[in-house]
């Protein structure tokens, strides 16, 4: 699975997956979690705590009762009103795979694949008996290295085998040594070129190596211990593992220091470094790029390569020169074992979970194995497996109603642009051209992916993952030198998320998120506009956020703003960045409002546009926003309550900390309170007086 570097996800839930997608959690179903599966949540005003004051803390008002009644289960790192949906979505895939796992001559080719993938993944006793067996050929390959000139071949092999290993920095499972893939050209979005990105780390980003506060040091120490244990599981003795751990930490720390940070990476201009193949080679003479490209079978047709951070590669060159062959073998062993661990025996799985899910995210217990298998299968075969989900969960009527909702929110942005007092006519015209060029993708792709060339057997889970990774890596590389395929989807149909891709100028809403509590076919418009309408508005405004606004209607990196309008925009964006630069006491860290500025602007714009769209719709139907309904609430109130309800979610403190430090999305409580406190429409809904916390003295507004 890969989406464009600049594609912007809404990231609704499942942080364990979205933060560390390569790190599946695992093992041993806790019986109680199975006995009482969570249900789909529907908006219910009875959960509102009316003893609280909505103008003091709207999130608490909407969510405190629900949160108190739904503590985070031990095998989860977060739990919210959408968690039942995730369980439900996964249950549908499980059923499809389980029934396909019964061996029969009548199975179709694809049923054989998903069935045998499932069987190999679920076979815990078989995996335990195999131990590190499936790792051995690749360990031997590293042991056989005769000189550092073979580094490129080793890295190529790891990239073709392990999920996430070839994907660069933004994947948040940083690649082994470096990231390599296809990417749309920044200046000409119709072209696909080779993209080379920084990578090389085992921790989520560079801050984890560089920050020197007590908590950061503690995590780094635990990471060292984790590397040591993993290397011992792979067969090293304690003394060698200790020495190798030091080497790995030293190499990764040097790489981290040379990396571009994630604030600088928000400006696409900083990443747009075009180089010829010869220039790439000259940047790192000690890394044999020719060998690497030939081993991974990268098409030679790229007109040029985009190297996101040349500085990083200068450091890689230094490291290759300075470090011994044995040091590099240790580094490769670590990345091999790390990337393979989730697909091996219990000892590997447990140790991997202990650091990546327990220490980094706060998980108390491992997920039931079936859920882990479903998630990994969705990653590896999801663009065909998704058919089973759509058949059960996404009837044509749902598609029709969401398409209609989407058009209404797009019209709201058109009106909004017309009415802006800070944007001049020339920029408005360009903004509308871009808005009307957005391609809407709803539910699922028009064409299901053909996985027939992927080899899947019941014999080795790890080998199945190798096969699926090679397929996906080559599918991405095949695009180099060819015209861009606009129809492609970057996330699978059952995914509970959505994204805007500025280089394709598309928004994508998979069927997985068009479900309760976000889209509820049994609910009236006010409830649906408050939940899914806001997410739709959020995605549309990404085309016009601090990153998205730098691309034009065709997806080219081109400045279409007058200098005055750009300045006015930046001042308004800065108001949001300042608002969200705040201490997060429950996470023990401070939020950087410049990291989250794009998402926060999208949240604010999204809720306002959806409210505008609802207002127009009710007006056209002759209905009032402020007339009380049978249950005592007005549609205006239900709009905001449904918004709050769809974001009720509790996080473990470890996850909060990791999220605030690495993720461009604010925590749910702030996504609710910081947004409504900027809106006079909200003030009116609950008669909030000036001076109360939900009415900011200086309200920020971009859209
Ligand atoms: Zn977003």
Describe this structure in words.
- The model is unreliable at 11-34 (pLDDT under 50).
- α7 (136-143) packs antiparallel against α16 and α22 packs across α25 (635-646).
- The protein has helices at 15-19, 31-35, 58-69, 83-100, 109-122, 124-130, 136-143, 151-161, 207-210, 214-233, 238-258, 268-271, 277-283, 289-295, 310-322, 325-340, 346-361, 369-393, 396-419, 425-437, 461-477, 525-542, 563-580, 597-620, 635-646, 653-662, 668-676, 680-685, and strands at residues 8-9, 78-80, 178-184, 192-198, 274-275, 305-307, 439-443, 499-501, 506-510, 583-584, 589-590, 649-651.
- β8 and β9 (506-510) form a beta hairpin.
- It has 703 residues and is α+β, with helices and mostly antiparallel strands.
- The strands form four sheets. The chain has a four-stranded mixed beta sheet with strand order 1-8-9-7, with helices on one face. The protein has a four-stranded mixed beta sheet with strand order 3-4-6-5. Strands 2-12 form a two-stranded antiparallel sheet.
- It is globular.
- The protein binds zinc ion.
- Residues 8-10, 538, 542, 599, 602 line the site of zinc ion (ZN).
């Amino acid at each position: 699975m890969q989406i464009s570097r600049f594609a912007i996800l809404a990231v609704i839930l499942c942080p364990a997956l979205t933060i560390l997608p390569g790190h599946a959690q695992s093992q041993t179903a806790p019986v109680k979690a199975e006995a009482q599966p969570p249900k789909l949540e529907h908006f219910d005003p009875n959960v509102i705590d009316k003893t609280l004051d909505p103008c003091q803390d709207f999130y608490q008002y909407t969510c405190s009762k629900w949160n108190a009644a739904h503590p985070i289960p031990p095998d989860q790192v977060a739990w919210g009103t959408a968690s039942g949906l995730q369980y439900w979505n996964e249950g549908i895939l499980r059923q499809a795979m389980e029934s396909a796992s019964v061996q029969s001559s009548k199975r179709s080719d694809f049923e054989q694949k998903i069935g045998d993938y499932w069987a190999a993944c679920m076979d815990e006793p078989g995996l335990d008996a195999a131990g590190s067996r499936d790792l051995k050929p690749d360990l031997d390959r590293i042991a056989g290295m005769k000189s550092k000139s073979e580094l490129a071949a080793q890295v190529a092999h790891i990239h073709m085998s392990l999920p996430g290993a070839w994907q660069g920095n933004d994947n948040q499972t940083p690649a082994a040594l470096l990231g390599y893939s296809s990417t749309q050209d920044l200046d000409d979005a119709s072209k696909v070129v080779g993209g080379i990105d920084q990578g090389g780390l085992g921790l989520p980003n560079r801050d984890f190596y560089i920050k020197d506060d007590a908590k950061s040091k503690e995590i780094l120490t635990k990471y060292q211990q984790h590397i040591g244990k993993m290397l011992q599981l792979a067969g090293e003795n304690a003394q060698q593992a200790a020495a190798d751990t030091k080497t790995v930490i030293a190499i990764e720390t040097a790489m981290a220091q040379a990396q571009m940070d994630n604030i600088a990476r928000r400006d696409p201009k900083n990443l747009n470094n075009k180089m010829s193949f010869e220039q790439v080679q000259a940047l790192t003479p000690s890394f044999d790029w020719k060998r690497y490209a030939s081993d991974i079978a990268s098409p030679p047709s790229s007109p040029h390569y985009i190297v996101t951070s040349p500085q990083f590669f200068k450091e890689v060159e230094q490291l290759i020169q300075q470090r011994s062959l044995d040091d590099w073998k240790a580094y490769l062993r670590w990345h091999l074992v790390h990337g393979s661990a989730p697909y091996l025996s219990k000892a590997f799985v447990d140790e991997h979970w202990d650091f990546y899910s327990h220490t980094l995210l706060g998980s108390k217990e491992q997920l039931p194995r079936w859920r882990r298998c479903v998630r990994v299968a969705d990653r590896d075969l999801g663009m065909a497996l998704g058919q089973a989900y759509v058949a059960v969960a996404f009837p044509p009527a749902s598609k029709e109603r969401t398409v209609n909702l989407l058009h209404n929110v797009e019209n709201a942005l058109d009106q909004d642009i017309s009415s802006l007092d800070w944007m001049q006519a020339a920029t408005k015209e360009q903004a509308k051209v871009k808005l009307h060029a957005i391609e809407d993708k709803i539910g699922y792709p028009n064409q299901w992916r053909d996985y027939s060339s992927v080899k899947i057997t019941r014999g080795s889970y790890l080998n199945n993952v190798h096969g699926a990774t090679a397929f996906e890596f080559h599918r991405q590389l095949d695009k180099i030198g060819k015209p861009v395929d606009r129809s492609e989807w970057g996330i699978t149909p059952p995914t509970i998320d959505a994204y805007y891709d500025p280089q394709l100028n598309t928004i994508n809403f998979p069927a997985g998120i068009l479900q309760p509590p976000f889209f509820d076919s049994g609910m009236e418009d006010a409830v649906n506009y408050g939940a899914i309408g806001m997410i739709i508005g959020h995605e549309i405004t990404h085309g016009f956020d601090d990153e998205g606004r730098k691309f034009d209607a065709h997806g080219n990196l081109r400045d279409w703003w007058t200098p005055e309008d750009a300045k006015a925009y930046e001042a308004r964006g800065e108001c949001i960045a300042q608002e969200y630069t705040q201490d997060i006491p429950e996470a023990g860290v401070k939020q950087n409002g410049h990291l989250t500025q794009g998402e926060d602007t999208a949240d604010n714009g999204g809720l306002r546009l959806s409210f505008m769209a609802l207002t127009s719709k009710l007006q056209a139907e002759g209905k009032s926003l402020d007339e009380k309904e049978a249950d005592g609430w007005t549609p205006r109130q239900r709009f905001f309550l449904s918004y709050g309800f769809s974001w009720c979610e509790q996080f473990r403190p470890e996850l909060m900390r990791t999220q605030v430090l690495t993720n461009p999305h604010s925590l749910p409580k702030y996504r609710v309170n910081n947004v409504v406190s900027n809106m006079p429409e909200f003030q009116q809904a609950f008669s909030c007086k000036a001076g109360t916390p939900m009415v900011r003295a200086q309200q920020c507004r971009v859209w």
